[in-house]
Each structure stands twice: as structure tokens, then as C-alpha cells.
Amino acid sequence: MIGARTTLARLARRQLPMVSALAAVLVDLAPLPDAAPHSLFPLATPMVTFHWALRRPDLFTPLSFLLVGLVLDAAGGLPLGTTGLALLAAAALVHGRERVLLAQPPLLLWGAFALFLAVFEGVRWSVVGLWHGLEARPLGPLLGEYLITVSVQPLMGPLLAPLERWVGRIRHATGSR
Questions:
Q1: Which of 6, 49, 74, 137 is the most interior residue, by most CB within 10 Å?
Q2: Is there a domain that residue 10 lies in?
Q3: What's the sign of the alpha-carbon dihedral 47, 52, 54, 55?
């Protein structure tokens, strides 16, 4: 019985990156705190997915990016696949470079996120524009959303750190992290 509980607890911990990304989707879909229809709010989903793409790529796989994107698109009324494609394109920038990026000073890691978000926003903006018949989408709100998300991103690491500790370390074949 103890072994089954341990296995169940381990499985639950391995789902925390996906659960936290889905919680970020809910934050992104929540109504804004004021009545202004054009208020800007930072995007939680790219911040959380960037964190897990770097820190636990074994648990946050390309399928995870697609699923999170599909949930956000379906609930947010975007063309299905738009956000998943944007997340995958952005994640391609960090894939295979996790250790190198994590060894960098915080300012460079922040710059990596800014590039990640630029690719994410650029792909989403382009796909939505194509979906609407090559209609030009305004860049002002996109730029504002980008700037506020980049400025808030350094706060995400400390918020996710307790989850990261609870999930545990990556165990490679060599036994090192």
C-alpha cells in the first residue's frame, strides 16, 4: 500500500508543470480587474511555459505546449492551434539549450524570455491576421502586452520555485542533474 501511495504521489508531482500551465491559462482568460475594455495585462501562459521548458523539459514536452495552446484557443475563441503553434515555435528557441541558458546570469535569462515572447507574440499575431483574411491587426496593444509581460516575468520564477522543488530533480542516466 505504501508503494502504491508513493507511486501515485510521484505521478501527481510529475503533473504539476501541466497543472500550473493550465492555471496560467485560467489567469489569462480571467476578466480584467477594471472596466476598461483595452486594459493590458501580462500573459501568464508564456511565462509559465518558458519556465517549465527550461527547468523540466522532460515533463513539459511539445505535446504539453500543444495541449495548453488548444485549451487557451478553445476557451478564448482563437483559431484552434494558434497558441499551440506559437508556443512550439517559441520553445524551439530554448530546446536543447536548457543547461546553457540556466547557467547564464538572470539578465541574460530575462533576455532569452524576451526573445521567446517575441516569437510567441509574432506567430500568434501572424496566424490570427491570416485567419482574418490578411487583415492587419493593430500592433499597439501587442507591443503593450509584450512590454508588460517581459517586465513582470522575473516574478514568475520565485512563484514557481516551490512547485519546482516539489516536482523534484531531473534524473539523467548519468545520475546527475
A1: 49
A2: no
A3: positive
Alpha-carbon gap, residue 56 to 33, rounded angstroms: 32
Rounded percentage of the chain residues whose pLDDT exceeds 90: 62
Using CA atoms, how far apart are residues 134 and 115, in angstroms rounded to an integer?
25
In a domain, 81, yes or no: yes
The verdict on residue 174 lying in a domain is: no
- Given a cut of 80, whether residue 64 has pLDDT beyond it is yes
All cell numbers assigned to 35: 472596466
Domain contains 133: yes
Query: Rounded distance, CA 125 to CA 130, Å?
Result: 9
**Long-range Cβ contacts of 99-107 (<8 Å, 24+ apart):** 101/54, 102/54, 102/55, 106/154
Distance CA 64, CA 57 (A): 10
Single-letter amino acid code for the residue at 100: V
pLDDT at 12: 74
CA distance 50 to 46: 6
What pLDDT digit, counting tens, does each position of 89-120 carry? 999 999 999 999 999 999 999 999 999 999 99
